[in-house]
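Figure 2 data, in text form.
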Amino acid sequence: MAQNKNSLSNLRKHSTQARKSGELAFKLRIECLERIVADRKANYIPTGDLPSNAKDFYSKNDWIPDTEEREAISLTRNVFYASYNAQLRDDLKVVFEDIKTPLKTKKIVDEQELKIARLENQVKNLASENLNIENEYRRLVVSLNNKIKILETNNRRLTDLLENNSEVIQFPQR
């Protein structure tokens, strides 16, 4: 009887330990997949070769990078579908949705960058044209100021001549 109690106690301990290690492996596997997806999305790399369903997630290891410890994140079907891992399966569904619906493709990003480059070039051209117009305006202002000075000088000279000549010139008599 005492031996039965010890074996039941050992079985409970082993079961609890197996459950914890299974949960940890499941969490680590999800975190690994999340890191890969985030890295690929940041670099606009397609995610088509990553697992997008439960069976591929727990049965295949070809998507796991060599830098990861594959034994520590190995997962069985029983651990995957265990009732205590329901929340982890829900978290995994979010990652699967992220894999299936990428935010932006490289083509869209390239088009947007090309449009930005065209707009920047247009701004530079407008700034250059604005500078040319401003220089022309300044040149015209200087030219007009010079003409005004010349005309004022001529006006003074002619006014002086008129005043000087008006005293000297006599009107003819009739």
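Caption note: The chain has a mean pLDDT of 84.
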